[in-house]
Every structure is written in structure tokens, then in C-alpha cells.
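Training component of the fellowship. As part of building independent skills, the fellow (R.M.) carried out the full modelling exercise for a liganded target. The chosen ligand was zinc ion. The inputs are recorded below so that the supervisory panel can assess the work.
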Amino acid sequence: MPELPEVETIKNELLPYVVGHRITGVTLIWEGIVRQPSVEEFRSCLIGQEIIGIARRGKYLLFSLSSGDLLIIHLKMSGSLLLKPTSTEPDKFIRAIIHLNKGTSLFFRDPRKFGMMRLVKDDSSIASKLGPEPLEPDFTPQVLAQRLNNHTAPIKALLCDQKVVAGIGNMYADEALFAAKIHPLRSGESLSPEEVARLQQAIQQVLWSAIGNKGASTDTYFRPSGEKGTAHFHFQVAHRLSGKFCPVCSTPIERIVVRNRGSYFCPKCQPEH
Ligand SMILES: [Zn+2]
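Fellow's submitted model of the complex:
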């Protein structure tokens, strides 16, 4: 699933090719991708609008339109937004095409069909569901400590909870916990101030590093150009298959399931107690 670094990369790479362009048409190959408003209204409200900016909040992309409306896109499990010449023949996983006025179009590719688009007046529908942005300067160890305070759930599950911190999912939670030397099953409230400080730093480090590598193409993630990201080549534990060894101490990496998510960690570097 695309997480913060993948969505941030998509935003950064779309910006120069999309902002200032006008939407000339909307092709919905699979209408279920539009969640709000009706398909007819969605199409008629988008056509003619200029895209004036793109922002990211958590794993959401927010396209600001000249009408004042916001087009919110979530890529969910398997979505990509590809920039291609308008004349390109869509492959079988393209669910929607937003046509732009200068010969390129935005192709929403989504093999598993969990992705969605919503046209709304403002971001209030998502703002209430999201915790702080982990790469903002105000995401301090104190803020993370407050978010974890009184939570008995495993830290791995808390990091993946969008209300606790926005944008982190399975891969970067595993990477951050490894970098911070914290076992994924430790409860949120059990972390010492030193461990929270290490974790806050680790979160920022793994996310910035992955953005630098244009995201991780472990599954169906592509950049708007169709190229893959390379962040997964630098993963220490995430997505390790059995038989891999800890890059720090050479202990075999273990996999456990935490709240339905496969979690990879080093039992020596990340002791449970
Ligand atoms: Zn180790």
C-alpha cells in the first residue's frame, strides 16, 4: 500500500505537470471509484476547472480546483496516478482518466479497486480522522508521547493508526521500530521518554530517506512517470522474506502478526522486555 513517502513522491512529481492545467474531460471506466458526489455531478463539476495546487495529508492527495472545491484521492491498497499522453490506450487496470488541456492525462490505475475519489468543499471529512503529520517541524517527541499516552495497544498497531500519526503504514512502521530498537508488541504507554525520542527521530529518518528514494515499489506502486521507486532496496527489515538476517547483528529476522499485519523485526536488536 502506498504510504506517506509514496504519496509525497506522487504529489511532488505531479505538481509541475498538473498545476495550471485545466480539466477537459473525465472518463470513468469503473464508476465505483467515485464515492462522492454522484458520478454525473462529479464529472460536470470537474470539467472546466483548473488545478491550482496539490497537497498531501496523511496518505491522501488533495487537488485544489479553481472552483474552490477539493478533489480528494486515496490510492488505498494498489493505486497509482500515471501521467500519460491523452491518446494512450488504457490498460485493464485503469479505472478513471482525468483529461487535461495540454495533451496529457491523469490515469488512475488500481488493480485491486480499493482506491477512491471524492469531490468536496473542504478537507473537514478527512481532517478529523488524521493525527499529526510526522514530517512537520511541530511533530516533536513530546507530541508523539502525547499520542501514545494511555494506549495499551502494540506500538506497531499504534504507528499504523492514522489517528495517532498520519501517513505511516506497515512498511515504515517496521522500519522505524527497527531503527529505534523497539519491539513491535511493546504497548504504546510502556515506552520510556528516551524510547519515544528515538522513535520520533527514526520515523522522520525513515520517511525522509524513502522520499529521497522516491518511495518503495514492493507491489503495485509506480511513480507518475511509470518508473518504480527504490526505497525498498534500502529496507532493513520490512518485507524481508524468511531466511534474511539482521543487517546490524546477523540474527535471523522474525515475522509475527500484529493486529492482522505481518511485522518484521530483529529479536536481538528489538528485545521485547
Ligand atoms: Zn539485529
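The panel noted the following from the submitted structure. Residues 246, 248-249, 251, 266, 268-269 surround zinc ion (CB under 6 Å). DSSP finds seven helices and eleven strands in the chain.
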